[in-house]
C-alpha cells in the first residue's frame, strides 16, 4: 500500500513492486488519476481514495482495509509557500506529511505484516522541531522551516515506531527513505521567489528521475536493512546508488521522539495497538 502513488516516486515505486508480482494499492487523493496510474502499471494494481489532509478520510480509508497486507509505504507529501491548514486545522505540511501518515499507520498497524516505510527528505538535516508550536501559530511562518520540521517528524516517527514494535516483540520493521535530488513534478515552494526559480531551472539538469529516486524506498521496503534505518542516495545524499545513510542528531533523539509521538496521538485521537501507554 503506497500513499501518493499516482505520480513521481510513488508511481515509480508501485510500478517496480508490481513488476515483481506484488499486488499494490495506490492510496491517492484523486481517484481518477489513481485509476489512470493503475491502468498504466497493469494487473494487480488498484486505486483507493485517501486524503491525508482529513483525519475523517484517513479513518474511512483504514476502516475499508479488512485483510492483512505486507507493506505500508508512507510516500505522499506536500510543500506550500504560505501557511495553509488542513480540514482539521493543522498546518498543512505537518498535517499531511506527518500527522496524516501517523494516524494511518496507527489505524492499520495490526494488519501490517512486514514493514512500514516512511519517505522523508534530506531537508530534515537542518530542521528543528518545536513540539509546543507544531502548527506555527506563534512563530513567524517559514515554509522551508515547516517542511523541514515535517520531515524531521517523519524520522522521529520511524524511530519511535521501531522502538514500540521491538518492545511488543513484533517482527514488523519501521524504516525510512529519502530520494535525494529527484525530478518528479514535486514543486519547491519555499516562499523565496529567487530560490524557487533557481530550483526550477536546475532540477531538470542535475536531478535524477523518479525511477532512480524510488531506489531508496525500494531498498527500505525489500532490502536487507535494520529497523529504524534511513536509506538514501550514496553520493553526498543527492544522487547515486541507494544505501543506508546517516541522519541528523535531532532525528535520533529518543526523548523528542517519544514526546512527539504522545503529542501526535493527542492531535489525531489515535493510539497504536502497540503503545502500552493509556489512550487519551
List keywords for this structure.
single chain; 280 residues; alpha/beta; Rossmann fold; five-stranded mixed β-sheet; three-stranded parallel β-sheet; 8 strands
How would you describe what is shown here?
InterPro entries: NAD(P)-bd_dom_sf, SDR_fam. Keywords: Oxidoreductase. It comes from Modestobacter roseus. With 280 residues, this protein is of the alpha/beta class. It has helices spanning 8-19, 31-41, 55-63, 92-108, 143-167, 193-206, 210-213, 215-222, 254-268; strands spanning 2-3, 24-28, 45-49, 69-74, 112-119, 173-177, 230-235, 239-245. The model has no long low-confidence stretch (mean pLDDT 90). The longest helix has 25 residues, at 143-167. Strands 4-5-6-7-8 form a five-stranded mixed sheet, with helices on both faces. Strands 1-2-3 form a three-stranded parallel sheet, with helices on one face. The protein has a single domain, classed as NAD(P)-binding Rossmann-like Domain (Rossmann fold), CATH 3.40.50.720. Helix 4 (92-108) links the parallel strand 4 (69-74) and strand 5. It contains nine helices and eight strands.
Write a brief structural summary.
With 280 residues, this protein is of the alpha/beta class.
Q: What is the CATH C-level name? A: Alpha Beta
CATH architecture: 3-Layer(aba) Sandwich
* Model regions low in confidence, pLDDT < 50 over at least 5 residues: none
Would you tell me the structural class of the helices and strands? Answer: alpha/beta
GO molecular function: oxidoreductase activity
InterPro entries: NAD(P)-bd_dom_sf (IPR036291), SDR_fam (IPR002347)
Pfam family, one: adh_short
Keywords: Oxidoreductase
Amino acid at each position: 500500500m503506497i500513499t501518493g502513488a499516482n505520480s513521481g516516486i510513488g508511481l515509480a515505486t508501485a510500478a517496480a513492486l508490481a513488476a515483481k508480482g506484488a499486488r499494490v494499492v495506490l492510496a491517492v487523493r484523486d481517484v481518477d488519476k489513481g485509476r489512470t496510474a493503475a491502468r498504466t502499471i497493469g494487473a494487480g494494481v488498484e486505486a483507493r481514495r485517501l486524503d491525508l489532509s482529513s483525519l475523517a478520510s484517513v479513518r474511512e480509508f483504514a476502516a475499508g482495509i479488512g485483510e492483512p497486507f505486507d507493506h505500508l509505504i508512507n510516500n505522499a507529501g506536500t510543500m506550500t509557500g504560505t501557511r495553509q491548514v488542513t480540514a482539521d486545522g493543522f498546518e498543512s505540511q505537518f498535517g499531511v506529511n506527518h500527522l496524516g501518515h501517523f494516524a494511518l499507520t496507527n489505524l492499520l498497524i495490526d494488519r501490517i505484516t512486514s514493514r512500514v516505510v516512511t519517505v522523508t527528505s534530506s531537508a530534515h538535516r537542518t530542521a528543528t522541531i518545536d513540539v509546543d508550536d507544531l502548527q506555527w501559530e506563534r512563530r513567524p511562518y517559514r515554509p522551508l522551516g515547516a517542511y523541514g520540521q515535517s520531515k524531521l517528524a517523519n524520522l522521529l516517527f520511524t524511530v519511535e515506531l521501531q522502538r514500540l514494535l521491538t518492545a511488543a516483540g513484533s517482527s514488523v520493521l519501521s524504516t525510512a527513505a529519502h530520494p535525494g535530488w529527484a525530478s518528479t513534478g514535486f514543486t519547491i515552494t519555499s516562499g523565496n521567489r529567487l530560490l524557487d526559480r533557481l530550483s526550477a531551472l536546475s532540477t531538470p539538469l542535475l536531478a535524477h528521475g523518479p525511477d532512480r529516486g524510488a531506489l531508496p524506498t525500494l531498498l527500505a521496503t525489500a532490502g536487507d536493512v535494520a529497523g529504524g534505518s534511513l536509506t538514501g542516495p550514496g553520493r553526498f545524499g543527492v544522487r547515486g546508488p541507494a544505501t543506508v545513510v546517516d541522519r541528523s542528531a535531532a532525528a535520533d533523539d529518543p526523548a523528542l521522539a517519544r514526546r512527539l509521538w504522545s503529542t501526535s496521538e493527542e492531535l489525531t485521537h489515535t493510539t497504536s495497538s502497540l503503545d502500552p501507554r493509556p489512550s487519551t
